[in-house]
Design goal:
The protein is an all-alpha fold. It has helices at 3-14, 17-31, 44-47. The longest helix has 15 residues, at 17-31. The chain is elongated and about 85 Å long. The relative contact order is 0.05. The model has no long low-confidence stretch (mean pLDDT 85).
Length: 81
């Protein structure tokens, strides 16, 4: 049974028919944007969890190769000793 089904059963067990009709009317007002004080949950973050989730490196990019050890070439080995 889904969460919505359990929620509907819970509402029906806690409220009268008239109260449920008021709940439905209130929810339809929210869905039609007639009640600016109440907004439905925004699920954008759930759909896009990594949107704008980045970190900027504190060091600027290199303009020259780093001074340090010279790269050494690896010698190819043939497998024969």
């Amino acid at each position: 049974m889904s969460r919505i089904s359990r929620f509907v059963i819970w509402i029906c067990s806690k409220f009268t028919k008239a109260e449920i009709e008021q709940i439905i009317f209130g929810l339809s007002e929210v869905l039609l944007d007639r009640n600016p004080d109440v907004k439905p949950k925004d699920d954008f973050k759930e759909k896009h969890p990594n949107y704008r989730d980045f970190a900027v490196d504190s060091l600027p990019p290199l303009t020259e190769p780093p001074a340090g050890k010279k790269k050494t070439r690896k010698r190819k080995t043939t497998g024969k000793s």
